[in-house]
Write a structure and sequence with these properties.
Strand order of the largest sheet: 1-2-3
Largest sheet: 3 strands, parallel
Radius of gyration: 31 Å
Order of helices and strands: HEHHEHEEHE
Structural class: alpha/beta
Oligomer: single chain
Helix content: 25-40%
């Protein structure tokens, strides 16, 4: 003896019900509920500014000191900030400052970036356009304080 029942249903109502039933089913992940979930404390990162001038540039931007700061996990970004007057720097001095000091320090890590304004001798930066572009690309401005 066979029973044939015709169930009348609307497919628009059945598909959402199947989806709802699927989302309410428990998953089969095998884990121990008694084991606590270990949450690591988030590391709070910060930025630091290394402020230097014409006379303290080699002391502040010492390679060994920079490497210690770079390897610190709490430091996100290191900004090299020039202060004071740099108006004694002509085009040759601008190139030497870039190649002998700043370019080597920035090459140490992608964390190191420039910030602030170099107040070079008026017109000297335009004699070395590649150096001027390098300063700007790395975050510094040149003679920005002289603009009105």
């Amino acid at each position: 003896m066979r029973f044939y029942n015709k169930i009348f249903y609307d497919i628009k109502h059945v598909i959402p019900l199947i989806g709802l039933a699927g989302t309410t089913m428990t998953s089969c992940i095998d884990f121990d509920i008694r084991e606590p979930i270990k949450k690591s404390d988030p590391v709070i990162q910060r930025d630091i500014d290394l402020v230097f001038n014409d006379t303290t540039k080699f002391d502040i931007l010492d390679v060994d000191a920079l490497l210690k700061i770079i390897n610190n996990d709490t430091i996100r970004r290191i900004y090299l900030v020039p202060v004071g007057h740099w108006d004694k720097y002509d085009d040759e001095s601008i190139t030497a400052l870039r190649r002998r000091l700043l370019q080597q320090r920035i090459a140490l890590s992608p964390k190191i970036r420039g910030l602030g304004d170099f107040d070079f001798m008026h017109g000297a930066a335009s004699h070395v356009p590649m150096d001027s572009m390098w300063y700007v690309e790395n975050g510094w401005t040149i003679n920005n304080g002289n603009q009105r």
